[in-house]
Structure formats: structure tokens, C-alpha cells
Amino acid sequence: MKTQGSRLIIVSNRLPIVLTQGENGQWSIEPGSGGLVTALVPILRNRGGVWIGWSGMVEEENVDLEELLADATKKSGYTLKPASLTAEEKSKFYYGFSNEIIWPLFHDLQSRCNFDPTYWLVYQSVNHKFARVIAENIKEKDFIWVHDYHLMNVAKELRAIGVTSKIGFFLHIPFPPLDIFIKLPWRFQVLHALLEYDTIGFQTLRDRHNFVQCLRILIRDITLYGKGQVLTGRIKNREVRIGSFPISIDYRAFAKQATSQEVCERARCLREALLNCHIILGVDRLDYTKGIPERLKAFRNALIRFPDLQRKVTLVQIVVPSRVEIPEYYDLKVEIERLVSEINGQFTQPGWVPIHYIFRSLERTELLAYYRAADIALVTPLKDGMNLVAKEYCACSIYGDDVLILSEFAGAAAQLQRGALLVNPYDIEGVAEAIYRAVNMSQAERRSRMRKLRRSIREQDIFWWVDSFLQASIAQHLDDFPPLEGYVPLDDYLPQVDIE
Q1: Using CA atoms, how far apart are residues 80 and 91, in angstroms rounded to an integer?
Q2: Is 124 left (phi over 0), alpha (psi -120 to 50) or beta?
Q3: What average pLDDT does the chain have?
């Protein structure tokens, strides 16, 4: 998208880099990874811009970030600007408000919330810090694009210090329904802060619907109108656009690398090591929203109820370490490892181990090899904003004869429901039955389903996501804004409500 020569200012909780310290004490910078970095870095390089975020270091560590980031900027072609946090702010803003309140609440797990009022005070002050860094690094026509739940207050703070630039916001996690959102003690403050943005983007129509319902009930002086992908809200003398923009992956990059010689060779070795077995793959960050214990129980249920699956299937469960220093996450790790041990102890036979468990990060080539080797992907989060593992797996299905089993509570389900086997991750027997169905599915049905999945992901890739958000943000009129083709709500879960 061209925006009349303006720069793009990206603001996220973390910078798109990873700082590492060598044995000699010297710091080095490596490029970050992930869909957001993949999508936005080429745009920043081509047109110029700034990426503002936290480095991951705290002020007390006394690291000279300016010099490190200056070197990184020369190599990247765009400017990196840090927002600094103290150790207390890291604890109360990042671990506290962001991950002990918003993360569980927005994932429908309110029983895990810790509504400590000091968290809210620090959250506001950190958002003010980010706003100050933004204000110091913008020009008049720049478009500011803020990302995710850590920074919902940034636009409010920017308006308070006089910034009039166009500001967009994208929420990468789900937005909860009204009956859950109202449990947030600062519900009115958060809604009013979000309405200071010019464009608010959500992953799915369901998320946008939940947000609109909260506005209609809790914010009395807003008028909502429009139809299709993007709605318009008018509050006081301002207009805000509210849309759904499902994030995706760089489909062509995944598909191309999946055919590389190194990936093919690694995939072949994996298949030889698990000879004569259908490989079922789970790939997740260690988090209670991912439904890993429920998935393991479903796999055990499948082995019990369908004994012909024994020696015929192997589950490879990859868990990427995350926040293991937090007791709740450590306890989850212990539970997962207990279940893996129990299931392997119950079913292992000479020459066959039902579950291969990997607890570490995988570099990209190794991950793609697992995608290529697996016959079935088991993606069953209890709740997820999108879940890009599902899309990555499909992009790597070069022969188009693999099966995706997908939680209906993942954002990706709205787009991929026509090709995936949708399951309720809480339904242990239902997931077990889906595993059995996937293993015994005919090749013709496999190919038909995967063809639909790959086509949808190819047509609506990560670059389509960037373009659609920016187009909705800068378009003068939304009357002719293109509909979200191939992306329909799950009728059973998203009641159709007319917006007047």
C-alpha cells in the first residue's frame, strides 16, 4: 500500500531482534522471527520507517542499547528505537497486567486472572513511556501501527500529548464476549482507550462481533454502522473503523523452503525412524491456552477405543519452552511430562513408542522437516487468536495429501473450516474420533481437503493481511472495500447481528 510518501511506524511490545550475550560478555543482535517480522520488515526497508519496542533488557542491566541498535539499524535499512522498562515495570506491566490479567481473560480463562490494582497503574505508565518514544520519532504524515494487548492505551496517551497522526491498532489475541470482558475492573477505561485509535483490527469476525457488543452495551455515545469486513463507529466528533483482518504467513516462502534438499532429507530421516507409522504432529509454545494435556488425553482415548491404531500411529509433540520460571507454567510442563510418561508406559511395545516428546525450540529447517514428515497435524488450542502453525503445516504439505485437525476455538477455524476436521478440544472422545477418521481417510478426500486449505492460505497470505489493514486505514471511503472472500463465521458460534 502506498500512503502518499508517509513512513510506517510499527510499535510492538518487543523489537524485531534478539539480544544475546556471548561468553566474553559482548552483546550481539540477531534478527527476530515470526509472521509479524516477515510481513513488516520488507515494507519498512522499501519505504523507510521506524520500529519501536522493548529490547527485553531492563534498565538495571545498564546495557548500551543505543550503540547496539545503531549498528542493527545500518544493517536493517530502517530505524530501531527502544522503549525501556525497569525491573518493576517488567514484573507488573509484562508479567502482571499483560500476562496475568489480559492474556487469561481474553482467552476465556478468567479463573487464572490476578486483578492486582497496582498492575493497572504500571500498565498505564508503561504505555505512556511508549507514547513518549513514539512522539519523539514521528513526522507529520507518518502512519502509526500499534500491535497487541500490551499497548492498548498508547493512542490515548498519544492524544493526551497532542499527537494527531493516524493511528491503527491490531489485536493478535481473541477479544472476549461481553459476559467475560465486563469482569475486567478497568473495562470502561480500556474501551475508551481503544476508541482513540483510528482503525482497530481483530483476527476474526467473531472477535469484532464481541468488541462491537461490548461497545453497544457499555459505551452509550457511540453510533455504529456499515456492513462487511469493516464497520464505522462515530463517537463525539471522531470516526473509528473496526474490522477483521486474519493474520497469515508468507505462504510462498514456506512452500519453497519445504521443497529444499535439506528439509526433504531431514523429513526422510524422520519417516525412516518412525517406519510404518502415521505421524501425528503437535507444535505448541508452553502455555495453558494450547490444550496440550487435553490433546494427550484424547490421544490416549484413541489408543484405548481404537486398538487398531496401536503400532500404526505415533504422536510427535513439540513443546517450545516459555516462561518456565513462572510456577503455573512449570506445573504445566510437569503435567505434560507426567501424561507422556503414563501413556508411553501404558502402550509402548517393542519397536513402537506412541509419543515422541520434544521440549526445546526448533530452528526453522528442523521444524519444516517435521511438517513435511507428518501425515496429520493436531492443532487443538482451547482458545487462540489465529494459530499460524495450522497455516504453516498446510503450506508445507507439498503433495497435498495430509490432514489438519483443528480446534474450532482457534481463529484459523473460520478460514480453514472447509478443509480441516474441526474439533472441540474439551471433547476428549470427539478428538479421539477425529484422529481415527484422519488416519483412515481416503487419499481422495485428503487431497480435496488440503487443496482447499492451501488455496485459501495462498490467496490470503501475510502480505494480503498488511495490505488489507492499511487499505482500510487510509481509504477515503469504505463503501467499495472488498469483502473478506473465503473467510466466513462459524454460524453456530457467531450469531448474525445487524449493526444499525
Answers
A1: 24
A2: alpha
A3: 91
Q: Please check whether residue 193 is in contact with residue 156, taking contact to mean a CB–CB distance below 8 angstroms.
A: yes
Name the grid cell of 203. Answer: 483476527
Q: Which of 142, 384, 402, 461 is catalytic?
A: 384
> How far, in Å, CA of 167 to CA of 451, rounded?
38
Confidence of residue 4 (pLDDT cuts 50, 70, 90): low
Domain 252-459: homologous superfamily in CATH: Glycogen Phosphorylase B; (3.40.50.2000)
Q: What is the pLDDT of residue 487?
A: 43
Fold annotation for 8-244: Rossmann fold (3.40.50)
Look up 221 and say whether it is catalytic: no
478: buried, middle or exposed (CB in 10 Å: 19+, 13-18, 0-12)?
middle
Could you check whether 8-244 and 252-459 share the same CATH topology? Answer: yes
Whole-angstrom distance, CA of residue 344 vs CA of residue 338:
10
172 is annotated as an active-site residue? yes
Contact 463, 41 (CB under 8 A): no
What's the average model confidence in pLDDT over 326-355? 96
Q: What is the pTM of this model?
A: 0.92
In Å, how far from its chain's centre is CA 297? Answer: 25
Instruction: Give the start-to-end residue ranges of the domains of the chain.
Output: 8-244, 252-459
Per annotation, catalytic residue among 108, 116, 128, 172: 172
